[in-house]
Design brief:
With about 80 residues, this protein is mainly alpha-helical. The protein has three helices and two strands, in the order H-H-E-E-H. The longest helix has 11 residues, at about 20-30.
């Protein structure tokens, strides 16, 4: 609801090539980000007690999305042995 108040759909945007939710979705994306880095400790995501990972769709109409995962870092010792 807060994001909808900050960037409501409506006729006041110049950028609406893909519909009335086009520019509001871009503004919401700028506020929420498009990437996330989470450390992995002991083979598990190192999230705090109240933390989680959420995928938010800012468009009103359905879209197909893909998630790209890039995992980097050292392998645990037991996996690194030949």
């Amino acid at each position: 609801a807060w994001l909808d108040r900050i960037a409501p759909e409506g006729p006041d945007y110049d950028h609406d090539d893909e519909g009335p939710d086009d520019m509001p979705a871009h503004l919401k994306m700028a506020l929420t980000g498009v990437s996330l880095a989470v450390p992995v400790v002991g083979g598990r995501l190192a999230l705090g007690t109240w933390q989680g990972i959420f995928l938010v769709e800012h468009r009103a109409r359905p879209h197909t999305r893909e998630i790209a995962l890039h995992l980097s870092g050292d392998r645990p010792d037991e996996l690194a042995k030949p």
